[in-house]
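Ex. 9. Protein: Chemokine interleukin-8-like domain-containing protein.
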Amino acid sequence: MFPTVFVTLLVVLKLQEGTGVGVQGINLRCQCITKEKTPIGRLIGAVEVNPASSHCKEVEIIATFAKNGKKICLDPEAPWVKKVVNAMRKLPGWTP
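Predicted structure tokens for Chemokine interleukin-8-like domain-containing protein:
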């Protein structure tokens, strides 16, 4: 009986692992490992700003290329990135 209970417990725990918060669209760690400093402003289709949180201590700015949808992390300290974010904030309906 003990092996059956043990196996059942393992199966239940494994199923619970797959339904965690991270699977529901909330990242539990930083997404940006490297950050682009070179200006790519005209190639950007969208910008996503992730404020610092308990899961990632840094502000993350993720740009999506207009043509191919590829995502790239931008350096929030780069002067051109600050200009892009400030311009986005002035747009109606913008939310970080």
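Check your answer against this statement. The radius of gyration is 20 Å.
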